[in-house]
TrEMBL record:
GO terms for cellular component: Golgi membrane. It is a single-pass type II membrane protein. Pathway: Glycolipid biosynthesis; Protein modification; protein glycosylation. Belongs to the glycosyltransferase 29 family. This is alpha-N-acetylneuraminyl-2,3-beta-galactosyl-1,3-N-acetylgalactosaminide6-alpha-sialyltransferase. The gene is st6galnac4. InterPro entries: Glyco_trans_29, GT29-like_sf. It comes from Xenopus tropicalis (Western clawed frog).
Length: 288
């Protein structure tokens, strides 16, 4: 202040400029002092932590990238964009190593089917040691996931014992029932009676809707995509080349009377959710 005052004697203009700067810095400091609203903590009781059963509790993700395992991702070059999202959600054991350019390299959460747990175990070094920042969210039916007698639950408990730093959650059975109800509500069909198995994508989208403020879904085709026979075939999974083409797989499942996934129906539902919530579909990009 004393320096400013002395300069003021010399030059009125300089004085005015310095004075303004001083006021500006001061107001900025004041603004910084104001208490910020604390980030709101989300508590999601549908997801239960191993081994203590605590609900999933964390800050909401401002932006989420939901990366599908679809062959659509091959050659997308979207890896860097995906990695910019605050939270990156992947499904099952979809690898990033060797595919970084197309699918990114970060994995904040993995939603894993009970049927894929043995595949996680096959590569424990990678999933439970090298990727220990990843939160694993496992879904499955009661007979697999029961806390007392479920085989998958027991395997996960053992895994948690061996790698205490790994964060594992399971969907509670009431959350599983809720996911069935969401299907019934959206399609008018009972999930079990219509011979339907929900896909890992279904559980991932429901989690993302709870966790994320804004969602970009990568590599998920729209409901009508497979009707266009001129679309080039892509592998069902980007990491399993030479297997069945994605649309062939989707159509086969959609038509099967029982024991099938309804990938196309699910996508029609996701499109409707995009009216309610900020969901964007990228690569192929399509609107709700
Ligand atoms: C484990 O995963 C890593 C990364 O995807 C891969 O490079 C490695 O070959 C896998 N190891 C086994 C035994 O599957
Ligand atoms: C059922 O569907 C309606 C309309 O789409 C929606 O507003 C409501 O939240 C849904 N309820 C459940 C439990 O999914």
């Amino acid at each position: 202040m004393r320096i400013i005052a002395r300069l003021c004697l010399g030059s009125l203009l300089l004085c005015a400029v310095l004075w303004l700067c001083w006021i500006k810095v001061n107001t900025k400091e004041k603004a910084d002092e104001q208490p910020r609203t604390l980030p709101q903590i989300l508590t999601l009781p549908g997801y239960s932590r191993l081994p203590d059963g605590q609900p999933l509790s964390r800050n909401p993700c401002k932006s989420c990238a939901v990366v599908s395992s679809s062959g659509q991702m091959l050659g997308s070059g979207l890896g860097p964009q995906i990695d910019q999202a605050e939270c990156v959600l992947r499904m099952n054991t979809a690898p990033t190593l060797g595919y970084e350019a197309d699918v990114g390299s970060r994995s904040s959460l993995r939603v894993v089917s009970h049927t894929s747990v043995p595949l996680l175990l096959r590569n424990q070094t990678y999933f439970f040691q090298q990727s220990q920042d990843t939160v694993y969210v496992i879904w499955g039916p009661l007979r697999q996931m029961d806390i007392d007698s479920g085989i998958t639950y027991r395997v996960l408990q053992h895994t948690k014992g061996m790698y205490p730093q790994v964060q594992i959650y399971t969907l509670t059975q009431s959350m599983m029932a809720h996911c069935d109800l969401v299907f019934q509500n959206e399609t008018g069909k009972n999930r079990a009676m219509s011979g339907t198995f929900l896909s890992t994508g279904w559980f991932t989208m429901i989690l993302a809707m709870e966790l994320c403020e804004e969602i970009t879904v990568y590599g998920m085709v729209g409901e009508n995509y497979c009707r266009n026979r001129f679309n080039p075939p892509v592998p069902y999974h980007y990491y399993e080349k030479g297997r069945l083409d994605e649309c062939t797989m989707y159509m086969m499942h959609e038509r099967a009377s029982r024991g099938a996934h309804r990938f196309i129906t699910e996508k029609a539902v996701f499109a409707r959710w995009a009216h309610r919530k900020q969901i964007h579909f990228a690569h192929p990009s399509w609107g709700a």
